[in-house]
Amino acid sequence: MQRTASAEIRLTLDAPARLAFMVAVAGGASDERLDLRAGSAGSSGAPVHAHEVTDAAGSRIHVVDAASGVLSLSYAATVEGRRPSAPVSEVDLLTYLRPSRYCEADQLGPTAAGEFAGLEGTALLDAVSSWVGTRLAYVPGSSLPTDGAVRTLLARQGVCRDYAHLVIALLRALDVPARLAAVYAPGLDPMDFHAVAEAHVEGAWHVVDATALAPRSSLLRISTGRDAADTAFLSSYGGGVSLDAIEVSAVVDALPTDDVRELVKLR
After folding, report:
1. Under DSSP, is residue 4 helix (H, G, I), strand (E, B) or coil?
2. Would 224 disulfide with which of 12, 57, 137, 170, CB 3.0-4.6 Å?
3. Phi and psi at residue 161, in whole multiples of 5°?
4. Residue 49 DSSP symbol
5. Do 139 and 210 reside in the same domain of the chain?
C-alpha cells in the first residue's frame, strides 16, 4: 500500500503570533516535505523556520513564531506499506477512560448503559458505531467549535469530529478506553482532514468511524489525543489569525473495501 497526503494552508495574521501546526504524518514518511513562507498578499514569500516537537502521544507539532502578514504552509508526504500498530501503555488506558472537554462521558453514562448493556468487545464497537451513525446526520458547517458530545446528540447532526466525540464519550462511559485520531483519509468526499475514534478492545487500538466515509485500513494518522482539543491542525497564540484557504489531499494506490464488522487498526 502506498499512501500520499498533502495540505496547503494560507493564513493572514493581524499581529505577530505563535502558531502550532499538526499536519505532518505521525512517525514520519519515506518522502516528506514541509515548506513555510511569509510575505504579503500576491507574493511568493520568504522561507520561514519551524521547529518540530513531539507530544506524549507521538503527534508531531511544527511551531512557528510568525510576523504579521500572510503565511502559507505546504506539506506533502508519501508512506510506503503499513505502519506499526499503535503502542499500548497503562497510562494511556487510564487517561482515555476519563471524561474530557468534548467527550462528556460522565453525562452520557445513563444513555450508554441503557442502549448497550451486556455488550463488549467487537459487538460493542459495532453497536456504538451503528447507533451513532443512524442517529446523526452528517451536515457540513452544522456544529460550533465548542460543541461536545452531549450537544451533538441533542442536535442530531454534526461533522466527523462530532461523530467521533460521541462515540468516544459513549465508550468511555462503558469503561472502554477511547481516543480521537486526526487522519488523512483516502476516499473521503468531500476531502478534508478527518477525525475518527480509536477504542481499546482485545488488547489493541481499533478504529471506529461512525461516518463510514472512508475505508479505515487506508487512514493515515496525523495526531492522537483525548479529543479535538489535542488534535487541532492549527492552534494560534498572540495576534489574530484568519484562515484564508485550505486544501487537503489523500490518495492510496488501491482503495480498499471496508467491512464494518471487522476490527481495523490504524497504521
Report:
1. strand
2. 57
3. -65, -35
4. -
5. yes
Contact call for residues 7 and 246 (beta carbons, < 8 A): yes
Contact by Cβ (8 Å): 168, 152: no
118 Rama class: left (phi>0) / alpha (psi -120 to 50) / beta: left
The Cα 82–Cα 191 span in angstroms is: 22
C-alpha cell of 42? 500576491
Render pLDDT for 28-40 as a digit per residue (tens, 0 to 9).
998 999 999 997 6
264 vs 267: CA distance, rounded Å: 9
CATH number, position 52: 2.60.40.2250
Number of domains in the chain: 2
Residue 42 has pLDDT above 70, yes or no: no
Closest CA to 178 of 250, 125, 130, 239: 125
Per-residue pLDDT, averaged over 147-171, amounts to 98
Residue the block writes with cell 462503558: 174
